[in-house]
Amino acid sequence: MAKAICRGIKRKGLIDYSQVYVSSPFIKNLDSWKALGANVFTNNALVVEQSDVIFLAVKPHVFCQAIEQIESNSDKNSTKNKLFISIIAGLTTNNVEKVLQSFEGSRIVRIMPNTPMLIGEGCSVYCPGSKATKEDLDLVETILQSTGMCQLLPEHMIDAVMAVSASGPAFVYIFIEALSDGGVRMGLHREMATKFAAQMVMGAAKMVLATDKHMGTLKDEVCSAGGATIAGVHAMEKGRVRGAIMDAVQAAALRAAELNERSKKL
Description:
Elements: H1 2-11, E1 21-23, H2 31-36, E2 39-41, H3 44-50, E3 53-56, H4 60-73, E4 83-86, H5 93-99, E5 107-112, E6 122-128, H6 134-145, E7 148-152, H7 158-166, H8 168-185, H9 190-211, H10 215-222, H11 228-238, H12 241-263
Parallel strand pairs: 1-2, 3-4, 4-5, 6-7
Antiparallel strand pairs: 5-6
Helix pairs in contact: 3-4, 7-12, 8-9
């Protein structure tokens, strides 16, 4: 996610890779960043010292350890007045603020991106911590808009959004794969079936956004009386496709809420 966001910002001409500082405990993980021209380190403290905006793109269980490394290797002046943008799953802004309370003047903004931002078609949301300023939010919005669409939301909606927009691509990939399998079963070559399925999903999604029509209306416009499409829709309803997708979103949202509960123990 960090690399996808960075690519989006670079693509829009907002930064150069020479302005980017990246840290990982494993030097091999930094090869691709180094190839882009970014400054790479194995010490998190050096990244914080050199940066005004720091993306926290680590797993929840190593977050505290990463911050402890910064605290033990930095003087207090070098960690003042930083904006931290958190992509850490399951950690609320309150959780992050508690861990970063020794960083004087630090502000937190939490974001929930998704993988299509890699190609500039992301769907992201963000919410401020208690000390984030309007300028901080404007900056985050500019960053996220460089990777697709974004929206400011209250934090209590993050789990539901995560289930739809962050987990959603996985559900859509399964749907596209199933369409492709169906095409192959009916005689299409795999490559053709996959291309047709993926293009159709992209076109249908753009129809939803461009027309502002209800999905039921758009569906009815495809279905003719006694035709092939309504027969396919009937098969989907018999297979409980609609209910299965709703269950998937619910399961993802509940899992996110579970991770949030665990994070309260930090």
